[in-house]
Amino acid sequence: MMGVENIEKYELGLKKKSFSLFFHGGEIWCEHLDSLYDQMELLKQKFMQDLLQIQKPSSSSFVAVILDDSNVDSEILDQILHEFFRLNKQLRKVVFVGLNSKMKRYMKKRSADTNYLMICMDDLEKAKEWLVRKE
């Protein structure tokens, strides 16, 4: 059973909205899937709802997937990547923020399968800078 403090933290994660952010002359979609701890079904539902916005032609092709304090596994990451592949629009850069070292290694292997640049970082500010930096 979750204590009151854990329930409050968990609800904070559910209330975080994903949004488009203008940053250093570029636009980034910030996909907030953080602070959901072990609630993977809710994380999946939130992501699937947010995909409706991500796939809009007017949405940014630069995406930061923020996963701090969410205990994601390879199954969840595969589902996220699968949905990104299925989009009707081309993504250019995706950064995953807040993965543990095992999941970072997994994503590094999977990045070879993508048709966009994909990396993992721990610092959200550096991740946003990487997304909008001209290559």
Describe this structure in words.
The chain has helices at residues 4-15, 40-54, 74-86, 101-110, 124-132, and strands spanning 19-23, 26-32, 62-66, 93-97, 117-121. It is of the alpha/beta class and 135 residues long. Strands 1-2-3-4-5 form a five-stranded mixed beta sheet, sandwiched between helices. Helix 2 packs parallel to helix 3 (74-86). The longest helix is centred in the middle third of the chain and has 15 residues, at 40-54. The chain is globular and about 35 Å long. It starts with a helix and ends with a helix.
Number of helices: 5
Distance between the termini: 48 Å
Q: State the strand order across the main sheet.
A: 1-2-3-4-5
General form: globular
> How many beta-strand runs?
5
Please outline the major beta sheet: 5 strands, mixed
Q: Can you tell me the residue ranges where pLDDT is under 50 for at least 5 consecutive residues?
A: none
What's the SSE blueprint?
Layout: H1 4-15, E1 19-23, E2 26-32, H2 40-54, E3 62-66, H3 74-86, E4 93-97, H4 101-110, E5 117-121, H5 124-132
Helix pairs in contact: 2-3
Produce a short descriptive summary.
With 135 residues, this protein is an alpha/beta fold. 44% of the residues lie in helices and 20% in strands.
List keywords for this structure.
135 residues, 5 helices
